[in-house]
Design a protein that fits this description.
The complex is a heterodimer of chains A (about 290) and B (about 350). Chain A is mainly α. Chain A is built from 14 helices and no strands. In chain B, the strands form 4 sheets. In chain B, strands 6-7-8-3-9-10 form a 6-stranded mixed beta sheet, sandwiched between helices. Chain B has a 6-stranded antiparallel beta sheet with strand order 13-12-11-14-20-21. Chain B has a 5-stranded antiparallel beta sheet with strand order 15-19-16-17-18, with no helix packed on it. Chain A: It comes from Devosia enhydra.
Chain lengths: ~290, ~350
């Protein structure tokens, strides 16, 4: 049964809600935050549509927009190579991190063994060391193993991450043991239980981890710059920065390359974020 | 189908915490046995040891005559239904039921045949392509039972399967489980803390407390002849009244009043007289009945149930529940006489809490 409310009263409530001071402040802050975040992206897009002579004209809408920069960048073999390198490295690292972080997180969350807490603390403690401090040991290790200037050398530090292990462990802890025990009684081995039962139940965490890992690897600059010395193995951020060093800062080309570089990250986010939402819905309906 | 035998089975956690203490139990082929007891009594641990989910600390477990102490759950060929269903939210009903056959060597057609048969038996055919989120609690529990059924196991283990359902659905599912057992004839071990479930479902009930088995028997045996105070109060609803009494030459005194009861020899002077509420009647029309056990008390509260009324009375400091037949509803504060036939009384030694021979 529905109750028919007084339309005037409803309108009055609506007006009061609309002019609530808290709401105004919230929306204002959100608007300012949005502007701060979006403006550089808009300028990046705008600059990518300007010719070389127009780039210091700070108008947001280009006077004579052109796609020549895009044609130039896309027809430049180096850009496509760097694009491939970044894609390959980010995809491999993401798959590896999701696989290994989930496995370690699952083990720490669902198996009782001596020293489990110590192992977890040891993994967590690596989060407190800044990347810059790790670059030298990574480099020495890569040099000894012959990984300098190889894909493997670029990828190995990101193939298993402490943050990912922590994230996945926390999510796996919320998976009821009954699910795993039911599968155990049905005769699945521990790997099958992890893969067929536990993993699908933490899809939101996997999606979040995949997004973070992909973005982290896609935008990584410092380590790929250190470990590579051949232009063939540059990733996109390293390659784009070389536009600035070698060719008297071609801003329009850098911005065009950066605009193109955002496309894969957008795709990854758009594809995976629906799994996050679906996962939250599943969790809400359970039991 | 198979027999299940527990010989001196025990479970010790950590530094000597005994969850199950050397229990012995023989479960016959096709029998429906219910383990019942309060939380922490060891009933679920016992079930999990039978399932193979819990390591056995001592004793022997046999299924179908074979010692299975060291076998994995799968090798025991048993199926288990969990309290929270444990059906996978990311799979459809068909996939969930079929998951029980994941490691089976049957071909796809045979698997589908089994899934369809189980779904048909449980009334799940229209829901086979749905996800668990689109099912009611009762349907989800049926899916869990279906997943157990398709494996054609030698025994079903149920771990408080109806606890998450509302009262109406629980009663309905209880009947369905009973019918399923009658149809399949498979051995069932069922754990619950609900004595109504135990009474209605079991061929035999195993009452447990603190890791020990207190009594094993049919529901009627346990109701009629509880061996101690714990079982007496645990089985039957409302729980049995226990009135403290002191043995005298002609009978007993209850709260300073002499009451005539023929007492058996043996036991201490301090007794507890047990009488079930349904046999403890407040009925003025039967007042003065010769030979009856009669106690006076003050009405504390009444619960009219329609065909009868539960009358809460205070006999001295002891609270008791009696029954008033028909539409007789005594007033609160009124002094009434509750009566019971001598044959319906249970006697317990107050010190040992063990049952004495009935009068």
């Amino acid at each position: 049964m529905t109750t028919v409310a007084d339309p005037q009263a409803a309108e009055h409530r609506l007006n009061r809600a609309a002019i609530r001071p808290g709401r105004i402040i919230t929306w204002t802050l959100l608007f300012i935050g949005g502007v701060i975040m979006v403006t550089p992206l808009l300028y990046m897009l705008s600059t990518s549509l300007k010719s070389a002579g127009q780039i210091y004209d700070l108008q947001l809408i280009p006077a004579n927009p052109t796609l020549n920069n895009y044609i130039a960048v896309l027809s430049d073999g180096r850009f496509m190579r760097w694009f491939f390198n970044s894609t390959f490295i980010a995809v491999c690292s993401t798959l590896s991190a999701v696989f290994f972080d989930s496995m370690v997180g699952y083990t720490l969350a669902k198996f009782q063994f001596r020293g489990r807490f110590l192992v977890f603390i040891a993994i967590l403690s690596t989060l407190m060391i800044p990347t810059e401090m790790l670059v030298i040991p990574w480099y020495l290790m890569s040099a000894q193993l012959g990984w300098i200037n190889t894909y493997w050398g670029i990828m190995f530090p990101g193939m298993i991450t402490a943050f990912g292990v922590f994230l996945m462990k926390q999510f796996f802890e919320s998976v009821p043991d009954d699910f795993l025990e039911a599968a155990r009684i049905d005769g699945l081995n521990e790997f099958q239980i992890w893969w067929k039962v536990a993993m699908p139940l933490v899809t939101p965490a996997i999606s979040a981890l995949a997004i973070f890992t992909f973005l982290g690897n896609w935008t990584a600059f410092f380590w790929p710059l250190i470990v590579t010395n051949s232009r063939e193995l540059y990733t996109l951020p390293v390659g784009l920065s070389s536009f600035a060093v070698e060719q008297s800062i071609q801003w329009e080309m850098i911005m065009t390359g950066a605009a193109l570089a955002t496309i894969p990250t957008l795709i990854v986010f758009l594809v995976l974020q629906r799994y996050i939402v679906r996962g939250v819905m599943l969790a809400g309906l359970k039991g | 189908m198979a027999t299940i035998t527990l010989e001196g089975l025990s479970k010790v956690y950590g530094k000597g915490v005994k969850a199950v203490r050397e229990i012995d139990l023989d479960i016959a082929d096709g029998e429906f046995v219910v383990l019942v007891g309060p939380s922490g009594c060891g009933k679920s641990t016992t079930l999990r040891m039978i399932a193979g989910l819990e390591e056995i600390s001592g004793g022997t477990l046999k299924i179908g005559g074979r010692v299975v102490n060291m076998q994995d759950p799968k090798q025991r060929n048993i199926a288990m239904v969990f309290q929270n269903y444990a059906i996978y939210p990311h799979m459809t009903v068909r996939q969930n039921i079929g998951f029980g056959l994941y490691t089976s060597k049957l071909d796809k057609a045979q698997k589908n045949q089994r899934i369809d048969a189980a779904a048909e038996t449980l009334g799940l055919t229209p829901y086979l392509e749905r996800r668990p989120a689109a099912l009611s609690g009762g349907q989800r529990q049926r899916v869990a039972i279906g997943r157990a059924m398709v494996r054609d196991p030698v025994a079903f283990l149920f771990d408080e399967p109806l606890s998450n359902l509302d009262a109406q659905l629980r009663a309905q599912m209880r009947i369905e489980i009973k019918r399923l057992h009658q149809r399949l004839g498979t051995t069932i071990v069922y754990v619950t803390h609900d004595q109504v479930e135990a009474m209605t479902l079991a061929d035999r009930i195993v009452v447990m407390r603190d890791g020990d088995i207190l009594q094993v028997g049919s529901p009627t045996e346990l109701y009629e002849n509880p061996v101690d105070i714990f079982t007496a109060r645990f089985i039957g609803s409302p729980a049995m009244n226990l009135l403290p009494a002191t043995r005298t030459a002609g009978g007993v005194t209850i709260d300073g009043t002499s009451v005539q009861v023929a007492l058996p020899a043996g036991g201490g002077d301090k007794l507890l007289i047990g009488v079930r509420p349904h046999e403890f009647v407040v009925d003025p029309s039967r007042a003065g009945q010769p030979g009856a056990f009669a106690v006076e008390g003050v009405v504390d509260a009444v619960e009219p149930l329609g065909p009868e009324t539960l009358v809460h009375i205070k006999v001295g400091a002891t609270e008791a529940i009696a029954t008033a037949p028909g539409r007789v509803v005594p007033a609160v504060g009124q002094t009434v006489t509750a009566m019971a036939q001598p044959g319906s009384l249970h006697l317990f030694d107050a010190k040992t809490e063990k049952a004495l021979p009935r009068p």
